[in-house]
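Example record

Each entry pairs one chain with its bound ligand, acetoacetyl-coenzyme A.
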Amino acid sequence: MEYILYEQKDAVGVLTINREKALNALNSQVLDELSEALDAVDLATVRCLILTGAGEKSFVAGADIGEMSTLTKAEGEAFGKKGNDVFLKLENFPVPVIAAINGFALGGGCEISMSCDIRICSDNAMFGQPEVGLGITPGFGGTQRLARIVGPGMAKQLIYTARNIKADEALRIGLVNAVYPQAELMDEAMKLASTIAGNAPIAVRNCKKAINEGLQVSIDEAVVIEEKLFGDCFESYDQKEGMANFLRKKDDPAKVKKVAFKNE
Ligand code: CAA
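Structure tokens for the complex follow.
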């Protein structure tokens, strides 16, 4: 692949959008390669993914403006669908995805980060939906996910004004969970991913599904989704061993050790 790097460290996969000369802007090729890279992740061994951008300046500076500049209406709609399809794949990816935002996250860059489960960023990060300044709407989910994450009032203000915000403001409005010095960002992302990867994998996947699917429906339907995914954990090795470990601890604290969950 030309624009996507992938490496696996233990149970954590790291996907890097690698188009540094264009500040990792998303053209059709980057989107196609990202989709292929997600399909290729070894879900038997990977329990958490990190998504980041190459270099120290930009996570993703948006969809590719050069490519979009000559699109017809139909092509514009198709380009929106291409981005949305990949971002939905990311949002529904079976294991959690952490966006490690290492600089600009503008337009499609902010949107791709919002398709991830968790966003953390470096202190030089900058967020925004500048589309209305370019004569378009956010087209890769921004009008939908930003409102769900920071609330409709704040989302509308950011989108209508096309104003960029810095990391501290993104933290204040709940767009990111934490801000770190640039040099520490990937270590912190890896620590977070490793903590997640150390927990029971079937349970973690089911939590992701329950939260994502439950947010789309009424609370009455949502709790039924939760019940099924809760029930689904029982009789697994991980549930039996996780609970047995707790009970052993009650008998004799010396017997407790970290459970080696097996994903089964
Ligand atoms: N598309 C294509 N190329 C881009 C790009 C983008 N979104 N963002 C940056 N680049 C390219 C620049 O054209 C430049 O290329 P050249 O060296 O070949 O000229 C290179 O990346 C470096 O960029 P700058 O010289 O502009 O760097 P800077 O430090 O002066 O500015 C910046 C950085 C503020 C991020 C500026 O590049 C910028 O404003 N980029 C566009 C941001 C934007 O508007 N994003 C939203 C796009 S629309 C969208 O995403 C729609 C959607 O929802 C799907």
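The chain has a mean pLDDT of 96.
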